[in-house]
Specification:
Layout lengths: L3 E8 L3 H10 L3 E5 L5 E7 L5 H8 L3 E8 L3 E8 L2 E9 L6 E6 L2 H10 L7 H5 L12 H9 L9 H4 L4 H6 L2 E4 L1
Antiparallel strand pairs: 1-3, 1-4, 2-3, 2-8, 4-5, 5-6, 6-7
């Protein structure tokens, strides 16, 4: 089975800020506890563009991370309601297609440096030209790790909906209705 992950990551030390963001956006979802200055969450939402809805109530910075193992990965970063980074790589067709619609590398470098991680080969990772890349260590993972994200592998609303309330509590995950 191929991995399908879609998650959001709010830059905050306070889990309740992500809960409030979901409620203010009138969305339900799952909110993880804070790690590395990020609160990760996933949404149960099938309506209009979720990023637009979330960014209207966004108190700070959030990342939208999508990784479809057999198809593509994307990374969007919002500062309040403004999109400041927008990248997508798609390999579902006959060739790799990379879209750097808003490739604000200095912005991303600052996020990575704040985590104490290296920035030297970032562009090569985004261009799939780094020697560290492998099936087990795809570009999406390398970037997520450098940013300091911890809840990005096999994370989606569909995946989390398979856990009961006790299991979610043990994982330090809140369900927001």
């Amino acid at each position: 089975m191929s991995e399908f992950s879609e998650s959001y990551h709010l830059k905050t030390l306070d889990q309740t800020k992500a809960v409030t963001l979901l409620r203010d956006s009138e969305m339900s979802g799952y909110v993880f506890g804070e790690q590395n200055g990020w609160v990760s969450f996933v949404i149960d939402y099938r309506g209009r563009n979720a990023n637009d809805v979330l960014s209207e109530s966004n108190p700070s910075l959030f990342i939208h991370y999508v990784y479809l193992e057999d198809h593509m990965w994307s990374l969007k970063i919002y500062e309040k309601d403004e999109l400041v980074f927008d990248y997508k790589a798609d390999w579902a067709g006959e060739s790799l297609v990379i879209e750097k619609d808003l490739f604000n590398l200095p912005y991303l470098e600052n996020l990575i440096l704040a985590q104490g991680n290296p920035i030297g080969d970032l562009e090569q990772i985004f261009d799939f030209k780094d020697s560290k890349l492998s099936y087990e260590n795809p570009p999406a993972y390398l970037i997520a790790q450098r940013i300091g994200l911890t809840h990005y592998e096999w994370v989606s609303s569909d995946h989390l909906s398979g856990y009961n309330s006790q299991q979610l509590e043990e994982m330090d995950v809140l369900y927001v209705e």
